[in-house]
Amino acid sequence: MSEDIEGFTPPRGSTEVYECEFTPQEQSKIIHRIDRRLVVTIGILYCISLMDRTNLSAANVAGMKLELKLGVLVGSVSRYSIVTLVFFTTYIFFQPPATVLVRKIGPRIFLSAIVVAWGAVMIGMGFVNEWKDLAALRVVLGILEAGFFPSCVYLLSTWYSRYDVGKRYSVFYLLGSLASACAGILAFGLMQMNGLAKLTGWRWIFIIEGILTVILGFIGYVALVDFPDAAHRSYKFLNPREVKFIIDRVDRDRGDAVPEAFSLAKFFRAGYTDAKIWGYALIYFNTTTVSYALAYFLPVILVGMGFSVGASQCLVAPPYALAGIVMYATGWIGDKYRTRGPIIIFNMVLCLIGIPIMGWHSSNAVRYFGVFLTTAGANSNVPAGMTYQANNIRGQWKRAFCSATLVGFGGIGGIAGGLVFREQDVPHYYNGLWACIACCLFNIIIVGILSVAFWRANKKADRGEIELEQNSEDTQKGFRYTI
Length: 483
Description:
Radius of gyration: 22 Å
Low-confidence stretches: 1-18
Domain Major facilitator superfamily (MFS) profile: 38-460
Strand content: under 5%
CATH topology: Growth Hormone, Chain: A
Mean pLDDT: 85
Structural class: mainly alpha
GO molecular function: transmembrane transporter activity
Subcellular location: Membrane
Protein name: MFS general substrate transporter
Distance between the termini: 27 Å
CATH superfamily: MFS general substrate transporter like domains
GO cellular component, one term: membrane
């Protein structure tokens, strides 16, 4: 019976009966096997990706700023801000073709190859002597990392039903948050290698983390899995009957388990005319503006509060630990109660409480408490935003386009996050704080508009006036937007 299929509910009004050859216990075991192989592997790789992308802040306070003269202004922008934002120019541009390549080449080969390549680039950063060389390597890093995150978001969405994917996105991003939590402590430890092989401490941050990335890239080649329709290429960790169960399960949930043949025109046409895709992208832009601003400048902000360099590196960890708890809790609640918009609003309210405390309270201890709330809300909203779009999109190529667009706007948010806390605003960064507040308010407005539009569309579909999310792959009846 359909009720036995974990995470699946028949379309409203449907009288069709679904049967499954596996018992509920066997179904759970299959899903958990996929979790261990897929979610954990890409989560660990994302962990090192986020660490490599954001370790500039740790290296900056560890001596890189002085050695490469990154505090010097170029026009009205510091060299450090330029180095942070050039990464996103290529990161944004190369994301749409990357989601096509991952579908064509397969995640196991594609993802492991780019991880190894960007690890080599990270090692190279440890040997630069000019800030322009560092900026050039960041451009190359953007090209390589462009394919990773959208491909992972897309890959996860193909394996799970809509009301299973929220927890998986949360765990995936949670592992990345652990990187943010531990990166400062790791960087502080690597700083102690200062003078070894006549290299300063900040260089060892890049070299050691780059070596770790290369090693994990080779491990990823063995551990990663392909898309469900090509699972036979992944060392047969599922047998044909189990693969069929997964494909049928996704088809019954949203009817798009197997993709159509690729067409460039179809790839872009499937998404760019759909207004809600740009709504999801704006939500992600606003979210990442805040989260990247914290990732790049939190150690600097803590130093401005009066903490030492070592204390600032270590004090980054506890707020990200709280973010992990909130992230998983909201993901679990969203899946259980099949709601998405209110989760995003809740996270933004946390930020709206935390940012003013962090910026304007007279006590440093209380301001640090504000850092906890802001970090938890901003980072928890990343998987919440991914899940919101994944639940309300049908069609493989539309899903691929949406993943690329979503993460592309996240890259634009990275540029904004690298610019909102300006050198000339030290030590209070009031302009940056106001920008983050505006992003949070904007997200609440967008979710409100989409929620009303989804509610009205669902009502019309219930009355038989329209059919939602039709695509040429399938015309599944009964699809409803998740509010």
